[in-house]
Design a protein that fits this description.
Six copies of one chain form a homohexamer. Chain A is built from seven helices and 13 strands. By secondary structure, chain A is of the alpha/beta class. The longest helix of chain A has 23 residues.
Chain lengths: 236, 236, 236, 236, 236, 236
C-alpha cells in the first residue's frame, strides 16, 4: 500500500469504497453486523493481520492455558506489526469474547491500527475509552476460551462471512468495516477520493434545492459546474 | 387526516397509539426492529407514500441504471408530497441500503415528513445530522442495487411485517414506528391524547408514593382526583 | 448475602464475575442479548425476585384484566422487597413489552435494586431517565398482554436461557447481567475484588509498555511488583 | 371432554380446527415448528399434562440426579393419566433432548395418548417405531440435563410460543399440533366435523372440474347439492 | 419458451441450471429453503405466473372475504394459464399457509404446471398425493388470512429472496426450484443438456475408478473418450 | 484407534456416546443441525480428515479454477485415506454446496468411511443412492465456489460449532454426527457398549410393564436381574 493510498483511503467512507468495489464486480466486501465500539474513533486503515479461532473444547481450553505466553492468541497480539489491523475470525459467534481491554491496550501501545472481530469483546466500557479503532458484533464479558480456541495466525480467514487474506486492506468508519483485496487498494484509492469530492459537490446542489434530475447522478452540465467550482476533474 | 389529528398524534407516544389500536382489535401495527437513526428527531407524523423493492438481479441492477432519472427509486423520492412519509418495503433485508444521504437530503428539502425503511440506510453518519426523522433496521454502506430493485410505488406493501397502505398514518417516536390505518387516525387521536394526559397524572401519583392498587389503572377516586387536579375529563 | 458481599460485588465487573464462575465450572451465567437501557445507571447488585410469563391467549389476556389489582404482574411489582431485583422470564420474546414506565417507577419508589427482562420494555424514553438499573433486549411500545401472560412469581425461571432461582444474586454493569447462584455469592466476592485489583495493576504495566510475556498473566516477578506497589496480596 | 368430542376431534384435521378457533378470535393455537416423528401415527387427541423445564446449571444438573426416582422429569412421566398428552416446555431449545426412548416407551405402556415437546427427542430411530404419537422440533442425542432442568408439572406453560393450560385439548395430525382451550373443545367438535364433511364434498366438485366461483366457498346452489347428495345439513 | 427448451429443461437438474446461470453472472437464482412436498413429482418446468401477498390486517382479512369470488387469491388461481407455474411471494413467512388442497387441486385440474411459495401450505397430507409439483418452506394448517393478504398478481415479486418476473422460467427438481430469467431460457437449455450428458459420462469414469485428475473436469483425452463413446460433441 | 474400538463404536448410538463424553466433562460434541442424507446408510465410524473453506471472492473463485487438478478441494478428496471421514468446515453456511455427486462418488470408490459437512451438498438425489454415509445441513444445487473457497486441509476446524482435530473419531447414526476427541476413543468404546447392552435390558423391562422406579436408572436388584439374564457385567 502506497502512503498516498493510506492517506486517500483514510478520508474515504465505506459507502464510497463498497461502490468502487462493486463497480469491479466485488459484492461481498462489507462486514455486516460489525459495528464500531467507539464511533468517535472509527476511522481505520491498515493491512490485515489475521487470527483464527475454532470452537473451544472443555478439556483443552482451560484457564491455565494462558500461563503459556506462547499461546496463539497472546502470540498474535504481540506479532501485529505497527499500522496493521488485527482481524479475528470467531465464526460470527459471540457468546464468549475474542479479547478484552488488556489485550486491546497492548495492541494500542504497540501501534496497531485497529482491532476487528466478528465476535464480541469484553471490558467494553474501558475499550470504548481507547484511541484504537475497535469493531465487533457487540459485548460479552465471558473470557474467550469459554467458546473459542485460538489456533493459527496469518492464514486466510472469513470474518463476518467476508474473505480476509493477510495483507488485504481494512478500512473502517462509523458504518463499519470493508475489506479491500490487496491488489485493488492502490487502484481504487484515487477514484474513491474523486467520487467523494464529486458527491460532496452534488450534496451541496441538493441542499440548495436542485432536483435529482440532471444532478444525481450528474449530467454534463452539472459536471461542468463541478469542474468550474472546484477546479477538480470529475470522477467517473 | 384533520390538522387537529396531526397535532394530537404528534404528541402521542407509540406506546399509547398501539394500545388504542389494540383496543380496536389491531395487534400488528408496530414495525418491530426499526429504530430511529437520530432519536433527537424521532417525532414523526404523516401519511405513508410507499415504495416497493424486490430482490436485485445482476444483469438488470447495474450501476448504470441510475443514469435514468426516471428510475423508480429516484422517481419515488421526487414524488413524495410535502408532509408525507416515504415508507420502503425492503423485505426486511439490509445487506444493501435502501437509500443514502443525498436522497434523504432531497426528501428533507422537498418537505417530506420522514423516511422509514425495513432495510438499512447508508451514509448514516451524515443522515444522523439531518432534521428529517429517519427510521431503519441499521446501517449498511452498500448501494441499494447490490440487493434491491425498486419496482413500483404507491401500492400496498409490507414493512417490517406490518401492512402499509398508501395514506395510512405513520407515527414515530424514540421507540420506533407505528402504522395507523387511514380510517382510524381521526378516531383515535383524541382518546390517545386523553390517555396520555391521564397517564401523566397517574405517573405523578406513583412518583409521590401511591401503590398500584386503586391508582393504576385508576379507580373512581383516582379519576376524581385527576378531574379535580387537571380539570380534564377522564379518558376511557 | 453478607453486606460485605454486596459491597464487593457492586465494584466487580461482569467480566470478572463470569471468570470466577467459569473457574468453578459454571459456563452459562451471563444473560446474552440483554443490555442496560441507561448505561450510566447500570451498576446493579441484588437478590432475584422472579416473575414468569407464558404466551398470551386472546380470550384471557384482554385489556380489562388490569382492572384486577391482584393481577400477577401487578402483584409481583408490589411484592419485590427493597434491594431485590425483579427478573422476568419472557421466553426471550419481545414483540410486546414486559412492563412500562409506570411500573418501573413504582419499583424505583419502593426501593427495588433493579429490573431485568429477557423481553422488551415500553416507554423507554422515560425509563432511560430513571435511576433504577434496567436491562432488556430492547424496546417495544406494545402492552404486555399482546404477547405475554403473567402467571406466577418466585418460581425458578429461565431468563435469556440462564437459570434464575429466587434469591440468586444478580449483578449488572454496562456489558449486561450475570446471575450468581445464591450459594456462591459470598464465596466469589473476595476473589473477584482481588482479581480486579490485580488486573488494574497489570493494565497499568501494559499501558507503560510492558509486553504480555511475564505480565499477563503475571509471573512471580510481576506479582512481586504488584505486592510491593499496592501492598495487596495477589489474587489466585 | 365428552367421549363424543374425542371421537369427532380424532377425525378433524389441524387445518379445520385452527379455522374453527380463528373464527372464535384465537390466532395463536398451532405449535409452529413441531412435527410428528412418525407421521403414520400422528393422529392424537387428549388433555394436556404439562411439564416445565428451565435452563440447566452445571452444578445442579449432573448425571447423578437421575438416581432420585422422584426427580421431576421421572415423576411427570409416571403421573400422566391414561389418555392424556405429556406436553413439555423446553423454551423451544433443542440442543439437548427432552426425553428418550425408554421414557417414551414407559408413556406408551402406561396408556398415554401422546408426547409433545418444543425441544428435541433422543433415540429417535427407536421412537419412530412406537405407536405413541410423538411430536418434536427434531432429534438430538444429548441427554436432557445438558441443557434442561425439569422443575415442575401441571402448571400453565408455553410450548412453541403457544399457551398450554393443564387440561387443554391437544390435537395432532401429520401437519403438527394444535391446542384447543379446554372450554372450547366441546363447542368446536361438531362444527369441525361438519366443516370437514362439507369440504370433502367441495373437493369432489373441484376434482370434477367445477371452478372456484360458486363452489368454494359454496353458494346456496352448491350447498343444496351437498345436502341432496349427502343428506347432511351444511356447516356454517 | 420454445417447446424444445421445455423438453431440454425438463431433463436438466437445478444443479446444472444454476451452474449455467452462474457462468452468465447470475448468482442468486435458487430459492433457498423451498422444498418439494412430493419429491416423486418434483420435476417442474413452466413460465411464472405471480401472486403477491402483503401482511394481513385484522379488520380487513376476515373469514368473510372469501365470499367474494373475485378475491385476488381466488382470481389468481383461476387465471394461471395451462402449463404455467403459480409463484407466490409470502415474504418468506409461513405461520399461515399460502393455499390449501382445494386450491391446489383446482390448479391441477386447470392444467397448471406447478405451485411454488416461499411460505407454507396447508392440507399437506392431501397435497402430497397430488400430481402437481408443489414447493414450499413447509406446512402450516392456518388459513392464509391469519397472516397474508393477497394484493395483486402478475407483478414482479421476490420469492425466497430471488427476483421473479412474470414469464421467467421456473424449473424444479428434488433439490428445489431455480428461476431462469425469461431471456436466458432458450440460451441455456442446450448447454445444460450437454453439460448433463458429459457429467453422466464423467460419473461413469469415476465409478470405474479413475481419479479426479484429468477426468473432472475432463481434459482433452477424457473429452475424446466421451466423444468416441457417446458420439456427442462436448459441452463447453 | 484399535480395531476393537472401531467395532464397538460402530454399534454404539450417538445418544450413548454423547452421554459417555458428557460424563467426562465434554458437552459440545454433537454436530447440531447436521442430518444423514440417506438414513439407511447412516452408520459411520472413522478418523477425521479435515478440509477448511473460507468465504468465496468473485475475482478468485471463478469456474475456471477447477481446471487446476491441484485445487485444494480436489486435492483433499484425493488425499482422504481409506477408512477416514472427510469433514468440511463451511462455517455452517449452505447457500452453495460443499461438494456434489461426482466428488462423493470418488470418495466412495477410494474407500473413504464417510462425508460430513456443516454446509450443504448438491446432486443429493444421486448422493442419496450412494453407500457412503453422508451428512449435511441440507441440499443446495449451487456449485461451491459461489460461496466457498477451499483453502487448506488437515488443520483443526470447527464443524457445526464443534471443534474437530484431524484424527478425532467421527461417529454417525440416524440422529447425526458426534466427534470423539482422539485420545478418548479407546477409553469410551467399552463403556459405551456396556451402556447400550444394559439399556437394551432396561427397555425390555419397561416394555414388560415395570415402572421407572428401581428400573431406570437400575437399582441393585435390577442390575442383579440384568447380570443373571445376560451374563454380562453391569456398566457403570
Amino acid at each position: 500500500m502506497h502512503p498516498r493510498t493510506r492517506e486517500l483511503l483514510s478520508q474515504a467512507s465505506t459507502a464510497t469504497i463498497t461502490t468502487q468495489l462493486l463497480a469491479r464486480g466485488l459484492r461481498n466486501t462489507f462486514l455486516h453486523g460489525i459495528k464500531p465500539l467507539n464511533p468517535a474513533n472509527a476511522r481505520l486503515v491498515g493491512p490485515a493481520f489475521t487470527l483464527r479461532y475454532i470452537p473451544a473444547r472443555e478439556d483443552i481450553d482451560v484457564l491455565e492455558v494462558f500461563k503459556d505466553y506462547d499461546h496463539p492468541q497472546r502470540k498474535a497480539i504481540e506479532s501485529v506489526p505497527p499500522g496493521h489491523v488485527l482481524v479475528m475470525d470467531c465464526r460470527n459467534q459471540g457468546r464468549a469474547a475474542s479479547a478484552g481491554n488488556i489485550l486491546a491496550t497492548r495492541l494500542q501501545v504497540k501501534g496497531a491500527a485497529g482491532l476487528v472481530t466478528d465476535g464480541t469483546l469484553r471490558d467494553t466500557p474501558e475499550i470504548r475509552q481507547l484511541q484504537l479503532p475497535t469493531f465487533a458484533q457487540g459485548a460479552s464479558p465471558l473470557t474467550n476460551l469459554a467458546q473459542h480456541h485460538a489456533v493459527d495466525m496469518q492464514v486466510p480467514i472469513g470474518c463476518a462471512e467476508v474473505a480476509i487474506y493477510p495483507g488485504d486492506v481494512i478500512v473502517g468508519d462509523e458504518e463499519g468495516v470493508v475489506c479491500i483485496p490487496a491488489h485493488l487498494a492502490d487502484e481504487i484509492a484515487e477514484p474513491a477520493a474523486r467520487q467523494e469530492d464529486l458527491e460532496r459537490f452534488i450534496l451541496g446542489e441538493i441542499q440548495a434545492g436542485r432536483p435529482l434530475r440532471n444532478t444525481y447522478p450528474p449530467d454534463e452540465a452539472t459536471l461542468e459546474r463541478y469542474r468550474a467550482t472546484t477546479g477538480h476533474p470529475p470522477s467517473t
